[in-house]
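Sequence design from tokenized structure. All designs in this work follow the same two-part layout: the structure record, then the generated sequence. An example of the structure record is given first.
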């Protein structure tokens, strides 16, 4: 037991007081908003990482997409929303944006990632600061410790967008698509090999597989789907991009070979959770109508690693 007047008690109180001071010093200050702008369609995102060697700050590209504007620029690229949280990425030399969202790293962790930064919103015409706030990694605000979400709320509060704030990602959600679906009977033979490259596409089109955000890259553009990218196939000068987490949720995006976004849709497939997409075959794109044969591997017995596979024939009209 520690006596109230003992040296150990005084040391403990001093340590607790010191910790309280550190906690207060690291806590984010309330946002300061001098002015707000309305009907903002996009912005320039700038990250000053001189104090952090990483490419992104606490308000990184994923959260900038989540902020739900028509476009934003970042490090020479224009990110344009095409709906559902997906984005077309193109090089840009001049920006149409009237406002800059600037993040300046102030502290980093042992890996060089920003742990504290200053987020400012500036008017590009006169350099005036509209608002500022401090971002602190893992700081709890509104019941959450997702600092990027705190930044999203702040940016939308200052740069009031015509995009609906109730949509968490992109201009609109992927619309459910009425589809004709035919399943073959499962076969007891070796599973289909996994498709890792675009099917029937020119060599100029390739998949850039990354840990968190794989894209399809063509000449002068990239396409970043909101859901994890899976299979890509081409037909008649069109590109069919499929994405999703589960085999039962199939998200379509159709593009031209030069990166023009044509249509998209969401198809629910009657497949079990253990099913895994293998490849797209016999794809045809006629206007907004998609016809495709999907090869699926299904794990039938986890203990013996016996697999079954099946064909899924899909015909869908995209929006």
């Amino acid at each position: 037991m520690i006596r109230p007047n003992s040296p150990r008690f005084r040391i403990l109180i001093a340590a607790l007081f010191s910790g309280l001071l550190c906690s207060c010093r690291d806590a984010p200050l309330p946002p300061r908003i001098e002015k707000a702008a309305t009907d903002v369609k996009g912005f320039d995102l700038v990250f000053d990482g001189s104090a952090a060697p990483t490419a992104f700050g606490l308000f990184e590209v994923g959260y900038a997409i989540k902020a739900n504007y028509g476009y934003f620029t970042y490090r020479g690229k224009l990110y344009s929303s095409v709906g559902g949280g997906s984005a077309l990425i193109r090089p840009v030399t001049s920006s149409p944006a009237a406002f800059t969202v600037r993040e300046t790293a102030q502290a980093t962790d042992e890996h060089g990632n920003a742990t504290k930064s200053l987020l400012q919103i500036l008017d590009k015409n006169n350099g005036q600061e509209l608002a500022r706030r401090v971002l602190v990694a893992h700081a709890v605000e509104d019941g959450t410790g997702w600092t990027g979400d705190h930044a999203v709320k702040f940016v939308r509060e200052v740069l009031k967008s015509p995009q609906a704030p109730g949509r968490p990602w992109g201009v609109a959600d992927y619309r459910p698509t009425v589809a004709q679906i035919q399943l073959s009977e499962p076969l007891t033979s070796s599973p289909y090999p996994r498709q890792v490259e675009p099917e029937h596409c020119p060599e100029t089109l390739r998949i850039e597989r990354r840990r968190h955000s794989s894209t399809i890259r063509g000449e002068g553009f990239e396409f970043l789907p909101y859901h994890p990218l899976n299979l890509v196939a081409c037909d008649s000068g069109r590109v069919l991009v499929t994405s999703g987490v589960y085999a039962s949720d199939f998200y379509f995006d159709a593009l031209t070979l030069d990166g023009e976004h044509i249509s998209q849709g969401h198809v629910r497939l009657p497949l079990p959770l253990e099913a895994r997409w293998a490849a797209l075959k016999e794809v045809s794109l006629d206007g907004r109508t998609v016809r495709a044969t999907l090869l699926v591997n299904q794990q039938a017995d986890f203990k013996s690693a016996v697999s079954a596979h099946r064909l899924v024939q899909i015909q869908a009209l995209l929006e």
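The CA atoms of residues 105 and 117 lie 4 Å apart. We note this feature because it recurs in several other targets discussed in the main text.
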